[in-house]
Amino acid sequence: MNAERDVRDGDAAPATPVSAAGDRAESVTGEVTEGVTKERGLGSRAPGFIKASRALHMSWQVGVFVVGFAVVVAGIIMLPLPGPGWLVIFGGMAIWATEFVWAQLVLRWTRRKVTEAAQRALDPKVRRRNIILTSIGLVIIVVLVGIYVWKFGITMPWKIHE
User: What DSSP element (H or E) covers 25?
Assistant: First the structure.
């Protein structure tokens, strides 16, 4: 009845996630596979000599947290101000993901959601809908600007000459 083999058979291979795009993916060991993404294991990516000493590893984690926190805060500040706020926030999350499992899981979830959204955006029906909505929005803006110019002329609402 099952479409998949039971793991108890012993010869069943563990499932590997397939990328949504179905493109080439490079594994942790550097090998390139077609259509299959081998995700890195969770955990610290600190060098071995740092992991060997508990005190050194703890100070490494504190340093990674502080640097990642500073980058995330800078990204949050850039959200209302000019600058690539979300990009910087995800950069800070990537810094945290080098050391913390929770950040690695957040980045995996985010990457999966972004890939799904990109695939949905490429759907012809969605593209057609977005083009229609954008066109309607532009027509509404042009009509409102036309009404403003008809009612008040080309003069601006502020008075510079005074």
Answer: strand 24-26
Taking the CA of residue 93 as centre, how many other CA atoms within 13 Å lie in the half-sphere pointing to its CB? Answer: 18
Question: Measured between alpha carbons, how far is residue 87 from residues 3, 71, 74, 76 in Å?
Answer: 41, 10, 11, 10
At residue 5, does pLDDT exceed 50?
A: no
Phi/psi for 4 (5° steps) reads -105, 155
The position carrying tokens 């850039």 is 78
pLDDT digits (tens, 9 = 90+) for 37-69: 555 677 777 777 777 788 888 888 899 999 999
Q: C-alpha angle 126/130/131, rounded to 5°?
A: 120
**Dihedral of the alpha carbons of 152, 155, 160, 161, in degrees to the nearest 10:** -100
Q: Model pTM greater than 0.70? A: no
Spatial distance between the Cα atoms of 88 and 80, rounded to a whole number of angstroms: 13
Distance CA 86, CA 84 (A): 6
